[in-house]
Amino acid sequence: MYISLVCVFCTAFGVSQLAPILPLYFHDLGVQTPEAMSLWSGLATGATYIIVCLAAPFWGRVADKKGRKITLIRSSFGMALCNILIAFQTTPEGVVLIRLVQGLVSGFYSASITLIASESPIERTGWALGLLASANLAGSLIGPLLGGYIADTVGIRNDFIIVGTLMGLAGVLATIFIHENYVPQPNPEKLSIRKLKEQIPEFNSIVALCVASFIYAICIMSLQPVISVYIKGIVPSDTENLAFIAGAVFSAMGIAQLMSSSPLGKLVDKIGPRKVLVVSLIYVGILNIPQAYVSDVYQLAIIRFLQGFGLGGMLPALNTYLSSKTPREFTGQVFSYNQSCLFFGYFLGSVGGASLMAWLGFTTLFWVSGGLFIISALWIGFKLK
């Protein structure tokens, strides 16, 4: 598990560092206007989400057939190769094409969740998944800051090569040091969703959890593309370093999430995932609404910092709950469907949030997002025991 933490940190760093430098890279490739840079960046990012969503069930079945460790090796070396190839592209179309391929081979963190959920004793699963979430968050927080520094120091192309090498190192560590006790079925049957329903006693609970994951992803991503625009509207017009301020507001939530993931993971093991999940969803949903009425960026940062404490318990509780409802021989396939729901939610949230803001404004967006969190809590509360 500890080797998995190191590997997850390395891959999360590599994935997250792309955000601040991708528009600049498109500018270097000849894209001139801010609108066009945003368009190409959004296309490159969204393409990966969609392909991951579509490919996850296939890789889940492969994991159940061949073992979960091979998925870690495939994704780490695949992402390493794609990052290195991006460094040698000369057109925006080439970058988008490589990002499509990267979506096909991505999924190290998802595979790590499946592996740890399968290997850890059920009474320690929440703690283990909480630590894994902390490692992923740490890499995601450091990635944009350190990635931008590396790009400024050695150039964007060299940055991609360095990051690709780091992901390759994660693959080497996973190959040598991660051991798996799972023994795959010799001739596993490729189960459709209907057959899975027949094989898994609590299949309806799993469907309810996948719906909750989908709603969670929509809510999380609905604010991501537009929060910088919202911050720009509440700070003085002559404010400098707007990107840094927006990054600091994002980091405030991430730091709180990092601080709470492990303690809430232990709480999941102690009192059960259902209580932690329902309370976290309601807490985060309620704190979403006051953000629509802040008058300065400090108020926004404080509310989002407090909100981050609730977010830290959501995915560990969801994944622990899912693990407890899933027979071990179907863990890869079931978790892959859940990951598809997550990534499809990320895609719809990023597109739908911006559209809703443009149509009805920020106040409505915050209320709708908060309401969806609370609806998800009620869904879990009524649908699951």
TrEMBL record:
<feature type="transmembrane region" description="Helical">
    <location>
        <begin position="203"/>
        <end position="223"/>
    </location>
</feature>
<dbReference type="InterPro" id="IPR005828">
    <property type="entry name" value="MFS_sugar_transport-like"/>
</dbReference>
<dbReference type="InterPro" id="IPR001958">
    <property type="entry name" value="Tet-R_TetA/multi-R_MdtG-like"/>
</dbReference>
<dbReference type="Pfam" id="PF00083">
    <property type="entry name" value="Sugar_tr"/>
</dbReference>
<feature type="transmembrane region" description="Helical">
    <location>
        <begin position="129"/>
        <end position="149"/>
    </location>
</feature>
<feature type="transmembrane region" description="Helical">
    <location>
        <begin position="37"/>
        <end position="59"/>
    </location>
</feature>
<feature type="transmembrane region" description="Helical">
    <location>
        <begin position="276"/>
        <end position="294"/>
    </location>
</feature>
<feature type="transmembrane region" description="Helical">
    <location>
        <begin position="300"/>
        <end position="322"/>
    </location>
</feature>
<dbReference type="InterPro" id="IPR036259">
    <property type="entry name" value="MFS_trans_sf"/>
</dbReference>
<feature type="transmembrane region" description="Helical">
    <location>
        <begin position="243"/>
        <end position="264"/>
    </location>
</feature>
<keyword id="KW-0472">Membrane</keyword>
<dbReference type="GO" id="GO:0005886">
    <property type="term" value="C:plasma membrane"/>
</dbReference>
<keyword id="KW-0812">Transmembrane</keyword>
<keyword id="KW-1003">Cell membrane</keyword>
<feature type="transmembrane region" description="Helical">
    <location>
        <begin position="71"/>
        <end position="90"/>
    </location>
</feature>
<dbReference type="GO" id="GO:0022857">
    <property type="term" value="F:transmembrane transporter activity"/>
</dbReference>
<feature type="transmembrane region" description="Helical">
    <location>
        <begin position="161"/>
        <end position="182"/>
    </location>
</feature>
<protein>
    <submittedName>
        <fullName>Transporter, major facilitator family protein</fullName>
    </submittedName>
</protein>
<feature type="transmembrane region" description="Helical">
    <location>
        <begin position="365"/>
        <end position="382"/>
    </location>
</feature>
<dbReference type="Pfam" id="PF07690">
    <property type="entry name" value="MFS_1"/>
</dbReference>
<feature type="transmembrane region" description="Helical">
    <location>
        <begin position="334"/>
        <end position="359"/>
    </location>
</feature>
<feature type="transmembrane region" description="Helical">
    <location>
        <begin position="96"/>
        <end position="117"/>
    </location>
</feature>
<keyword id="KW-0813">Transport</keyword>
<feature type="domain" description="Major facilitator superfamily (MFS) profile">
    <location>
        <begin position="1"/>
        <end position="385"/>
    </location>
</feature>
<dbReference type="InterPro" id="IPR020846">
    <property type="entry name" value="MFS_dom"/>
</dbReference>
<keyword id="KW-1133">Transmembrane helix</keyword>
<dbReference type="InterPro" id="IPR011701">
    <property type="entry name" value="MFS"/>
</dbReference>
